[in-house]
Amino acid sequence: MLEAFHPTAPVTTQPGPDVAPVPESRVLKKRIAVPRARLTPDDKPSPPTQVKAAVQNLNFWYGKKHALKDLNLTIRERRVTALIGPSGCGKSTFLRCFNRMHDLQIGTRYQGRIMLHPDNLNLVGRDMQPIEARMRIGMVFQRPNPFPKSIFENVAYGLRLRGARNHSEIEEAVERALRSAALWDETKDRLHESALALSGGQMQRLCIARGLVTKPEILLFDEPTSALDPLATAKVEELISSLREEVTVLIVTHNMQQAARVSDFTAFMFLGELIEFGDTSQIFTNPQQKATEDYITGRYG
């Protein structure tokens, strides 16, 4: 356990000349392996990514409990950002601010801003309707939650909710979403069977397809593999890695190896505060905050 740790140091987003190097005595004894990108001769370096969302001085309360405290970070477009930290640190609370899931509870309160670009909309502002936020921001939950409908109707549900009526267009969109979720080949001959007959891993990929079909601007994942076996987990992780080609992803995970495998950026949270944020490779190999190092090397959490 971490004894009496009260984070007061400023959040480190990028190392600069005023940041002291990690002393030799603090070099990690247990490092998380960060996979390197595999480039082919035809690959070109990725261009600088745009900011998709900017979190500015975000605070959140459950009644009198101050759950999130002055969070500031940027979410890059078409990149995967992972949120890590011990249980109860505020990861899922933060995630659910993006699509206003907290509005379903009485006594919750936001302060600060989550600016969605390029429209400059404050997702937690009083003028933003929660339903509009949820139409722009998709979410995949910890446990698969397919509707008691056919596979096809599960994916088509969001389209019908938005008023889609053209059957051929719906069919095309459903196929496209199932392909993006790497589920088309496994379900194309059984689209009208119950989704409840799928395996757990298939159900979770179905929920991902259901989230993708409406073309969200950001897709949220709240520990999406915690209830899956290793084989299904590997498929979902591979899928998340590939999704950066079409959508911005924000994922909460307790599995640090998973964060290292799938994410481009990582944020470490503790007691409702953002302790450190940066490139995933930097966070796991050269953290700038002692608390981050202690967590990823297993001293607490």
So what's the CATH class? Alpha Beta
By helix and strand content, what is the structural category?
alpha/beta
Q: What CATH architecture do you see?
A: 3-Layer(aba) Sandwich
> What is the count of β-strands?
10
Separation of termini? 7 Å
- Shape descriptor reads globular
SSE sequence, one letter per element: EEEHEEHEHHHHEHEHEEHH
For the sheet with most strands, the description reads: 6 strands, mixed
Oligomeric assembly: single chain
Helix content: 25-40%
Could you tell me the mean pLDDT?
A: 86
- Number of helical segments with 4 or more residues: 10
Task: Identify the strand order in the major beta sheet.
Answer: 6-7-8-3-9-10
Beta strand %: 15-25%
Low-confidence stretches: 1-31, 33-47
Query: What name does CATH use for the topology?
Result: Rossmann fold
Domains (count) = 1
